[in-house]
Amino acid sequence: MTSTNATEETIHAALEAAKKGLEVLTKDSITELRSFARPPAVCLSVFDGIGILFEPTKAKFEWSDAKRLMNDQFLYRLIEYDVDTITDEQLIRLTAVLARDECQLDRVKSTSFACYPICTWLHNIVAYKKIQQTHT
């Protein structure tokens, strides 16, 4: 296998890991998240990351914005999100959000199982973009 093929496979594997993480996200999980009037801090932080991707020009992403995004198309939009459109600025902002204690996967999983696959997706998207940047 050539170095180029190995790199392409690594990049592809990171993207597939991002999508695979969403397999456990259900409509019921999304409904649970939407039902929070005052969500846990981990959910707020995870959705700060979602806001960076889906509404990058918004200065402050509120829970009401997150609830609006969590419609019937939310899961589809995550799965079909074109990660190649993420700008360097978005990547920097998203990396900073994911570095918060509230976005550490073990903490998210123990606090909100419904939010965990979304956080995993965000972490894998960042990994994909960083691998892609190093090899292009």
From TrEMBL:
<dbReference type="Pfam" id="PF12777">
    <property type="entry name" value="MT"/>
</dbReference>
<dbReference type="GO" id="GO:0097729">
    <property type="term" value="C:9+2 motile cilium"/>
</dbReference>
<dbReference type="InterPro" id="IPR024743">
    <property type="entry name" value="Dynein_HC_stalk"/>
</dbReference>
<dbReference type="GO" id="GO:0051959">
    <property type="term" value="F:dynein light intermediate chain binding"/>
</dbReference>
<feature type="domain" description="Dynein heavy chain coiled coil stalk">
    <location>
        <begin position="12"/>
        <end position="130"/>
    </location>
</feature>
<dbReference type="GO" id="GO:0060294">
    <property type="term" value="P:cilium movement involved in cell motility"/>
</dbReference>
<dbReference type="InterPro" id="IPR026983">
    <property type="entry name" value="DHC"/>
</dbReference>
<dbReference type="GO" id="GO:0045505">
    <property type="term" value="F:dynein intermediate chain binding"/>
</dbReference>
<protein>
    <recommendedName>
        <fullName>Dynein heavy chain coiled coil stalk domain-containing protein</fullName>
    </recommendedName>
</protein>
<dbReference type="GO" id="GO:0008569">
    <property type="term" value="F:minus-end-directed microtubule motor activity"/>
</dbReference>
<dbReference type="GO" id="GO:0030286">
    <property type="term" value="C:dynein complex"/>
</dbReference>
